[in-house]
Amino acid sequence: MRVWERRRGGLASGGAPVWAALLLLLRTAHAYNLDTRHPVVFQGLNGTLFGYSVVLYSHGTSRWLVVGAPKAKWLANSSVVNPGAIFRCRIGSNPSGTCEQLQLGYAVGAGHFLTPASTEVIGGAPQQEQTGKLGSYFGAAVCAVDLNTDGLSDLLVGAPMQSKVREEGRVYVYINSGSGAEMLELEIELAGSDFYAARFGESIANLGDIDNDGFEDVAVGAFLSDSAVLLRTRPVVVVEASLKHPNAVNRTNLECVENGQPAVCVNLMLCFTYKGQDVPGFVVLLYDLSVDVSRKTNTPARFYFSSNGTSDMVSGSMQIYNSNVTCKSHPAFLKMVFARFCSRENCSADLKVSGKLAFSKLHEKKTYLSVGSMKTLLLNISLSNAGDDAYETALDIQLPKGLYFVRVLEQEETQIHCKISDNEAHAMRLYCSVGYLYVDHLSKMDFSFLLDASSLTRAEDDLSITVNATCENEEDKDLLLDNSITLVIPLKHEVELNVHGFVLPASFVYGPSERNSSINCMEEKINFIFHVISAGPSMAPAIDLEIMVPNAFAPRDEKLFNILDIQTTDGECFYDNYTRDCALPEKNGHMNILKDLIIFFSKPTQRRLYCMKDDHLCLRILCKFGNMESGKEAIVQMQLEATPSVLEMDEASSLEFEISATASPEKNPKVIELHKEKQVAHTSARCFGIIQFINAHSIKINKLWVHPTK
Predict the structure, then answer these.
(1) Most buried among 78, 130, 223, 343, using CB within 10 Å?
(2) At the top level of CATH, which class does the domain 351-489 belong to?
């Protein structure tokens, strides 16, 4: 239904009286009742004649109003004056009434896509719905051309802005499959003749057969590089070959007959076909077919062709016609070389097992397994037979708890097949059959088993792997002594602890107050923060942090600091909690002032206080965090106050206190400490005394600067 709305200003220049399209929804219950009060309005730009024609389109549950605008401009190319456009407006779920400008028809072409006798039109829409090869302007040019002379049009599609860095442009090639115009994209992309053919593919033209070779040629424009590229189509005959064969061979199924005897064979079906330029009559292909080509050097083939004696290769020829699949069958027989030769009276085998464990290249020099960091390891087993042929040979491998079997490396080449038995409560067991029927005498076979150790998180008891080799014809007990081997894997924790320390504030005041209080502790408190991080690959067991603070001037025992508070995010901290004391000694008037002045000017420049091992003059805080997983962090916050009466006893004008924090795991032979230098953090507090005259009668040393250092 078309409904026009008249706007002010009279008719438009093209004679159409509207700039907007109105959709009046007709209620199905009342056939002649139009809802004129609530129309759905879709608005176009002025002067575009939006609404010149409309049509309602639906697909499934979706409905659109398709609106024509004869004088609209293209969003993709504004240089074309008033070419007209088509808009698609969704009905429902579109409260703003927006419409999408369709670019179908940006480029057009015609060809024989369905049948050689029909003609179809193809259109390019380079920015339609912002899908496909987005940004390359795929579809800016289309060209129908018969590239393979099959009577059906193939397709060239230009993408002039396709580029990784600049707008070189590309042309994509699609071959008509001949089934309902289904186009198959080739892996090749056409490019310009030089490295930078700007906007190559902006235009494509079918030139016809300009060189009279029976194939159509094309020209591709690259206008930003002022060039056009001529591409000549070459005749191509594409031969396709396929070989059909069973995925496996059952050696017990005797389906074939050779020389009147049942035999094991596989039927190899060799097929050829070709497509492309017509060839009169047929094409004759000569071929050679070989079997068991991947066998080891200087070893006999396991299959042969009876039509060619006992050779592993057969030659033949085949006539093939265009687009027809021609096949030929060749049976290949299994060759079983079997002869029993005994060098001993009882034909006894003599198996010997040896092996070793190997870690990845990153840990190849280690003699232990680091839990947490080594995810896999290799169990390398060598099996040798010093006696006669060993029949029904098998390896019985017992894995400990925590190790899991993944696979056998190069399983097919090593002729081993394993079954897993994990019914046992604490271990996994592998039963592996070795060899094909038997293991040759005086032979040696090597196997590599990939094991998973990622579930190991604790270095408890060492792991033991037991390997035992058996066969049906090894009866001498003396020969069984070297049939078994036990490999031990030591487990270790690789621990790396990082400690960092910080001190706040940067300065504070100490000394006698102006009010001459008999009790005067520091108003500002000294705050220390220590971070302990488990940065190693393994869990760090039983971690301790020892904090040592210089707390006296030797040989005196008076305490320099009082502990106000200690908090930790993990575990618990322990220390000797003594009685808090901030008392200041009395001074004797002017004599003390004169004495202070003399002492200050005669003080040494600097004194550094630090702690030694088991130093009784130091304050020792011990924090126990327990086990720390890799990546875990523990934080200790400590608040101290200085006792001014003791600080004033020292005769140095500059004091530096070195506070150390040392993290360490428990002493255990299964723990290996990495980068031990990172386990200690040193934090220094430096104090400076300053004279200040007060009322011309008293002197006090009143400032202490604390500088955090690592």
Answers:
(1) 223
(2) mainly beta
Q: Which CATH architecture has domain 238-334?
A: Sandwich (2.60)
**Can you list the positions of beta strands (E) in 400-525?**
404-408, 416-421, 428-439, 443-452, 463-470, 484-489, 491-495, 497-504, 507-508
Residue 513 CA: distances (Å) to CA of 274, 303, 484, 508, 625:
107, 106, 85, 13, 41
Query: CATH class for domain 497-705?
Result: mainly beta
Q: What are phi and psi of 140, to 5 degrees?
A: -65, -25
**How far is 394 from 418, CA to CA, in rounded Å?**
9
Nearest CA to 558 out of 676, 466, 687, 645 is that of 645
Domain extent listing, the chain: 20-102, 107-235, 238-334, 351-489, 497-705
Residues 6 or more apart whose CB falls under 8 angstroms from that of 331 comprise 256, 265, 266, 267, 268, 305, 306
Reduced to 3 states (helix: H, G, I; strand: E, B; else coil), residue 306 is helix
Distance from the Cα of residue 395 to its chain's centroid? 37
pLDDT per residue over 144-173, tens digit each? 998 888 889 999 999 888 876 676 788 999
Q: pLDDT tens for residues 409-462? A: 876 566 788 888 866 666 788 999 888 778 888 889 899 999 998 888 888 888
Provide the 10 A C-beta neighbour count for residue 161.
21
- 309: region left, alpha or beta (phi > 0 left; psi from -120 to 50 alpha): left
89-92 long-range contacts, CB within 8 A, separation 24+: 89/21, 89/42, 89/64, 89/65, 90/62, 90/63, 90/64, 91/23, 91/40, 91/63, 91/64, 91/65, 92/63
CA distance 608 to 510: 19
Give the count of beta carbons closer than 10 Å to the beta carbon of residue 669: 8
End-to-end CA distance of the chain: 84
pLDDT exceeds 90 at position 706: no
60 sits in the region (left: phi over 0; alpha: psi -120 to 50; else beta) called left
Query: 């270095």: which residue's tokens?
Result: 459
Q: Which residues pair with 89 in a beta bridge?
A: 65, 99
Between 446 and 607, the higher pLDDT residue: 446
Q: What is the structure's pLDDT at 396?
A: 93
Quickly count: other Cβ atoms within 10 Å of residue 234's Cβ: 10
Beta bridge partners of 634: 532
Residue 204 in tokens = 């494509």
Phi and psi (nearest 5°) for 75?
A: -70, -30
β-sheet with 303-304: strand ranges across: 237-244, 265-276, 326-334, 303-304
Instruction: Please tell me the distance from the alpha carbon of residue 245 to that of residue 270, in angstroms, as a whole number.
Output: 9
Per-residue model confidence as pLDDT tens digits over 514-547 = 444 445 566 668 889 999 999 888 888 999 999 9
Same CATH topology for 238-334 and 497-705: the answer is yes
d(C-alpha 614, C-alpha 657), whole Å: 17
Amino acid at 386: A
Rounded Cα distance between 222 and 203, Å, is 8
Q: Do the Cβ atoms of 288 and 313 come closer than 8 Å?
A: yes
